[in-house]
Amino acid sequence: MDYSQTLIPSDTWSSSCTQMGALRLPYLTSIFAVSSGRTSVFPRGIKQLSVRKHTSAAKVLAKITPATEVAPAESSNQKPPVQEQGITPRSQDFNAWYLDVISMAELADYGPVRGTMVIRPYGYAIWEAIQDYLNIKFKETGHSNMYFPQFIPYSFIEKEASHVEGFSPELALVTVGGGKELEEKLVVRPTSETIVNHMFTQWIQSYRDLPLMINQWANVTRWEMRTKPFIRTLEFLWQEGHTAHATPEEAEREAMQMIDVYTKFSYEQAAIPVIPGRKSRVETFAGADRTYTIEAMMGDRKALQAGTSHNLGQNFSRAFGTQFADENGQRQHVWQTSWAISTRFVGGIIMTHGDDIGLVLPPRLASVQVVIVPIWKKANEKNEVLEAALSVKDILHTAGIKVKLDDSDQRTPGWKFNFWEMKGVPLRIEIGPRDVSSRSVVISRRDIPGKPGKIFGISMESSFLIPYIKEKLDEIQSSLLDKAITFRDSNIVDVNSYDELKEAISQGKWARGPWIGSDEDELKVKEETGATVRCFPFDQPPGPKKCLMTGGPADEVAIFAKSY
After folding, report:
1. Are residues 223 and 348 in the same domain?
2. Percent helix, strand and coil across the chain, each to the nearest 5
3. Which residues form the Aminoacyl-transfer RNA synthetases class-II family profile domain (predicted)?
4. Do 174 and 316 lie in a common domain?
5. In the prediction, which pLDDT does 24 show?
6. Residues 6+ apart with CB under 8 A from 129
7. How far apart are CA 23 and CA 226, in angstroms?
8. What pLDDT shows up at residue 27?
9. Is the Cβ–Cβ distance between 335 and 244 less than 8 Å?
10. How far apart (Å, rounded) are the C-alpha atoms in residues 141 and 30?
11. Is residue 64 situated within a structural domain?
């Protein structure tokens, strides 16, 4: 399933899968650790992002040994210089900004095996929020969770011709086990259609066994040669659903139902205005009759395939002999679907909503929706401020709001403001001695930086504070979606000729125009512009159209864009 990790052919991919290659990746720098007696590990070609000086509100202090400097001997008492470290502005270098946010917001780090990543607790909490929502929706639509092995016999992959052709460049293989060479090499799960069909063949005998609808939360391995944290890594996490049906109509309804679940999740939970649609033949998943997708516009205007749903037809059931006896006793091959969203969506959230300060999280997916920062100057003020802050925390927690009290003594209130803003917490509550006296608090919105986002004199009384906080969280959720919709729509250009398409793509925008071009025409667009057909949107404009490439009558418009 090419759900959230798009398969893009590359001249750099090896055609041999018998050995696992190594990837060269930059290491994300630790933000708050002091580097002492160690050389810098910035790889070649990667700028020393962590020692740049910026005026970002997310500035912190870190001791860093420059990459070109030899680490001092252990006997030396000289300390490395202290330098300001800030997030690279998005407009200056989007990729560097993205890596900075992941590192400084403590979302992930690189693993010891090149191409892998360690998802840190704050980043994994976003994935958990995605899981929590989707698990409910999957079960509401009749699916059950289960788990399949991650090792798949290579012969399974070979059974479906287009499937093996599509995945061969990315396969990781196991050839030795227990110190002995295996009789048959094993594939480390790139997707599970093959092993699912092997089991479905044993479980499905009659029409009474249908529909069979399951989902699994698992890890997947694809030997990517070009990697980016969350977006494209050797190993990633996802959910993959698999269903078997008695008729093609049932399978089509299922495939459409699940892309609709993903679309609603994107809009209502992630505040990402995806465009749902059908993939072109060239972009259809290997082994599927039709692939449906949700396409999201990132902050750099590249497209992100955020989730897919495939109508597999009978391709896998014929390859594996997955049959059932219908009501007339006739043997029929089942009709199937598969669909998934992965941790790639976490990267999509970062790149859709983040700003120069750092991460911006939609409240419904934030593990911390409100952070409370107590403020005092004198020792005799501390106890009453902390007592009031703890009381506010308890009020909000009891109301089901995800709240954190940052009562640590090691950092100043200003440092805490910057830190939690950088981590994207939707709301901040400030409580000082004057607030305690007036029984009120100061509230700051993450989506409106600086003084415009500050609200003073909000009562601490639970009857007022709880509905007020919930209202503000809802406002932020809606504001993020509205802002993303405005950005998306202002960067989609309607085109009616190939020259207009090329001009739009050269400006970094999405091009939307009538299309009936051949596969060869589509590949020509990719070669000449770097853009691909992202989808034929479900929402189509009425009226007659002429293909922007051929001039022939076209029934649909397609969206073209450069993508991740």
Report:
1. yes
2. 35, 25, 40
3. 114-362
4. yes
5. 29
6. 269, 364, 365, 366, 367
7. 8
8. 34
9. yes
10. 42
11. no
